[in-house]
Amino acid sequence: LCLRYPDDQLYPLLLKRREVEKLGSAYIGWLRVGGEDVSVSITGGLRVGADNRCHPTFTHNPSTLRTSCVGPNLQQIPRDTGLGRMVKEIFVAPEGFLLGELDYAAIEALLVGYFIDSERYMRISRLGVHDFLNAFALVELDHKLTAADLPNLDWPDDQLKEYLASLKKRFKFERDIRKRLVHGHNYLMGSRRAQEVLLKELGRTIPQKDIKAFFHFYDELFPEIGVGQRQLC
Fold first, then answer.
1. Which residues have a Cβ under 8 Å from the Cβ of 90 and sit 6 or more positions away?
2. For residues 138 and 171, what is the distance between their CA atoms, to the nearest angstrom?
3. Tag placement on the chain: N or C end, fewer CB within 10 Å?
4. What is this structure's pTM?
């Protein structure tokens, strides 16, 4: 079904149904109207205390022993796009207060470099890892750039960061695809799952052979990641 998109719209429809069911049960709740007295009830949704606030519990339940959050889970709320925006609108700051948002740029890639003890990967993560990888893929896989267009690690940080930022503007579409593949491969995501993520988030069906080719290319460019993954496993 995934490969039949966009001629066959059934697969995206299944993904949308899954998203609606998750949002309804985990975050928003289902409004039910019934009975002769036209009673109204809400089932599911975020658990809220008498003070209209969520009071989650922080644990170390996952097998990875990272910090997790339950009852409700506020660490993995949906993205601020589409239906997920409704979840963000549930949270309202009290009078006289503001809600702040903090985003650690490329923190997941940076942590990968830290745990595999790769100064090279950590530096690239700070400056623009997705654009760095996309540049090499645009040369080796897409043939849209030449070797003369590749970023050079011998450049100082400010020059390299500026050049990677310019690539981000020029090749945003390719970059958005490879950003998801970079994170997915760092977590040992398979090509089939990656294909589903790309269709769900970008509305594009990317052949598995192309995804596998990028994963192989990524392994060759940063072999230390594969070594670290095997040691961890």
1. 27, 28, 46
2. 9
3. C
4. 0.72
Give the number of other CB atoms < 10 A from CB of residue 82: 11
CB atoms closer than 10 angstroms to residue 80: 11
Average pLDDT taken over every residue of the chain: 87
Q: Would you tell me how many other CB atoms lie within 10 Å of the CB of residue 225?
A: 21
Chain center to CA of 22: 17
DSSP 148: G
Q: Which residue has the higher pLDDT, 86 or 168?
A: 168
**What's the burial of 182, exposed, middle or buried (CB within 10 Å: 0-12/13-18/19+)?**
buried
Q: How far apart are CA 207 and CA 32, in angstroms?
A: 42
Cα dihedral: 2, 178, 213, 140 (round 10): 140
